[in-house]
User: Fold these one by one.
Assistant:
Number 1:
Amino acid sequence: MQINPPMLIRSLILAVLYAGCATTGPQLTPLELQKLDPALQRLVLGTSASRTGYDITPGPSGEEKFGVLVRTDNVDDVRRAGYAVTSAFGDVAVVRVTIAQLRSLVTLPSVKNVTNGSMNHTM
């Protein structure tokens, strides 16, 4: 069997492109993306050049966990969905999530918006 070099190159390029698309995770709808503040949008889309503006702690398996503030109609819905709610007051919950969990968090109907947890400013 003879290998056709142009066909092999095309096949390799398509394989790389397919693998790149497969690793980005589920795509968010415009409404779901709109629930995220701009810093978290950059994080989810993979366009954030730096991690310095985020509240990051290592998870049990070494994965990055981001502290976010979730405004929700029902904090118990967030807990039941399996997210680590560290505290809650009224309609705001402090939650620690991975990027993959952040993508799925905004799909919950009870979640109204999610903001970056490290946007504290000293006075």
Number 2:
Amino acid sequence: MSAKSPKMMTQEARYGVQLSRLIFPLDFRDFRLALAKNGYELSPVRELPPPPARISFSGVIARKSETTIVADSEAGEIVVVGRSLQQAVASFGDLANVVATELGVDLHARVRLYSLIVHYRLETGKMPLKEIPKADNKEYVSKFSSVMKEDLSSFSIRLSPRGEAPNQEDWFDIAIEPDVIDENRYHIGVVFRNSRKEKTETFIKDLENNLLKLIAIIEA
């Protein structure tokens, strides 16, 4: 890596859970009231039918500071969107406390999976278009070039668990490529989901440092 200190900037981070319950445990009306009581700005909705009718809901539910609450009752998902992964995780913790205190529902109970999606831009002082091809499989790229009758190289690097299909619950994907707006920066996209809270917490704790290590390997 160059002498310039790497500069990592988060574009967006999403963190949340998908519950395994057959029926979503939160009533939409009660959920909105609990959020409003605790300082969240509610998203506008059309007139709601009277109880006891259950209401399916999907989309942005509320906002607080720089975070957004997104939920899908049919999929059993509740997600916090923030400006950093740390902010999204902390805000989800705050949301879980509100739901537990106000509604008596533990969002960590009967979790099918924890999930996160985060996008970074990274500057290292080097050019991603020149650095990423260092990880090429030269034999395969040569064959691809012969087929396309062009001098080719890899534009991106994708990493995932060996032999694991992307439709499995415990899975991750890390994509490293040049940023499409600024060729001097890397874009790094991370998708992670796991059924175990402890493994998810460890992945999050180590993620940004591990990403810097991956870039250092590429640029060595």
Number 3:
Amino acid sequence: MTDRNIKKFERHPYEVEKQELTNLVKYIIEERDLLQQVECKNLEEFELKLNETTSFKNANLSALAMGKENELARLHKIEKMLSTADLKDEDLDVNGNFTKIFLEALNEKYTIYFTKEEMIVKNKLDSIIKSYNALDAEDRKKLLVNRSNEMQVNPFIRD
């Protein structure tokens, strides 16, 4: 990543999304537990395993025949809930905490950077402000900004 200057970080939307995702973590953990119980890596593998075992073409019928309809229904419900969010199993570590990579990506989503043009203007303004602030208080009074937004020597102060 190139060295970019941060203009602002939108903390509120970041915190809102992070909280929404945190609320979904329990479903990913439940999904992990269910998949571990049925000895599968994901829902598709579970459905395929059910169909291969029963020789049926419909996973719901296969689950019903094998007494796994509750597990299948719950996995479908969890998948549906998680489909609305941008959160996947690999975004969590084994303890159910967000991974560093995931948090960095979420942070980046709400970070706004200065463009090159904005940085040029910002650097000019910083230089002007630094020069102005370097003047003592009496000399600062000798400058003003007129109605045209131009800085000029104050015509009302005579030396």
Number 4:
Amino acid sequence: MNQTRIWAVHLRLAVLGAAALSLALLAPAVQAESGLEAETRRVLATLFEALTSGDPAKVDPWLAPEFQLVRATGDAFDKAEYLERGIPKISSTPKFDDLVVTRNGDIIVARMRMRIEEDLQGKKAKSGAPQLFVFRRTPGGWQVVASGNFAKLVD
């Protein structure tokens, strides 16, 4: 083999080795994300148990002091308003589809489509709408900082 071919073979081997090393280094990050997704699903299920109760005392610990929620209808609530008149009436266990979770420090952002039967201020909401939750992870547990519910109301 001539010198150019030898260098080309070495270069290919180096690139393949670097790619393999990169994949090996990324594997723990991918596993950590799937662990975060599983933990987020458990937290969402527990949060919705509190919401399904309709009891503001059970929902209150889940909401950060600065909590804000906006709905597709344009309705918006801070923590006090939500506890007073914004908790939905939920009649089914939610299913979370297309869940995507990201994290930076103590902040976890989850977006999904949620299949659920719920009434928002006396009107039925369309199931399967996009949802967004921003959580802060604290020593005492997760708290919702902000939420966006894009469910349209059914006439």
